[in-house]
Amino acid sequence: MRTSLSVEEALETVLEHTTPLRGVEETPLNESLGRVLARDLQSLVDHPDVDNTAVDGYAARAADSAGASGENPVRLRLIGESPAGRPFSGEVGPGEAVSIFTGAPLPAGADAVVAVEDTERDGEFVVLKKPASPKDIRKKAQDLAAGRVYLKRGDLLTPGRVGLAAAMGYARLPLAPRPRVGILSTGDEVVEPGTPLPPGGVYNSNAYSIAALVREAGGEPVLLGKVGDRVEAVKEQLAAAGSLDLVLTSGGVSMGDYDIVRHLLEREGTIHFWKILQRPGGPPIFAEFAGTPLFGLPGNPVSAMVVFFLYGRPMIFKMLGRSDPPYRKVRALAEDFFKGAGHKTAFRRGVLRYDPRAPGCHRVNTVGNQSSEVLRSMASGNALVIVPPHTNVEAGEAVEVIPFGDVQT
Question: In b/e form, how buried is each residue of 94-111, taking b as 16+ CB within 10 angstroms?
Fold first, then answer.
């Protein structure tokens, strides 16, 4: 059994034993937000499908309005109008113009448009104070060309990408299946929120924080409840869970007599590694049990969240085939002291904020108490400050930081 891996070795091992899920789910467009494309998408149409106008104004022949100005206006005879959705069916001839509205197709014979604010109406004529120009014409297929790929396999469907898929003509999208991730809490002391808390008990925060992280990463959390400190109870609960793509347990992975998850995996699983040289979150175990990947997270709330973010999130991204990285790193100016962890890599919780004057355009402060059982630090913090082995970070030094969410970069 490999033990005490570096952060880099642990991540490499995790990804080595993770495979993308097979299959495609054809899903209605309005249910696709936050999902991942399983295939490249070609546009089904040209957009615009014809040359159209980008402004309200008048369509005319550029040659007829050359030299128009406030001092030397040009009069053109109006022969009709072209609203969006009801294009003008005739042809614009010499000395003629058509009233046109944004998005409407350019009439035959016209090759230029003048904005309405640069004109005046005079009965059956329009007076141009500027020349009509082709600059406000949107050319056919300027935005989308039929047959060209604009969304790729592995793309996360943001609101803008959902809109793009609709503009390309798709009512349903081929999506990657979401990994079903079982979440099992262990420990006699663990009780569900909303029930009376006995002496020495703790509420089951891990199940819900990890479930939220799984959902945020694109997975489908399956809450398996909690079991007491018996090896057979863990085994029975997992056997009853049904088909899962990944199992996450919390607690029971350290060195004590009651670390039942480790005991079960030593007896009946295939352990890929145990322990990572990091703080918080040093004692996790990564294995396979009954044909399913199992990541045993530490029981301390912060440790469980940090370990999932660093290793479980990349697993889910790979299962989904996502093309974007599971997290990014930015440079920031430390405004507080961040203590190292000896020969281990430390991940300290911090508050990251944008500042264009700082290194990497960010500054970072500590959340205060960095103890692994203080869950408040994960609620008030928005980043992990990376302190390499055998170092401390002094205030005023540049440091690498992993943001949790959408921090401006």
Answer: eebbbbbbebbbbbebbb
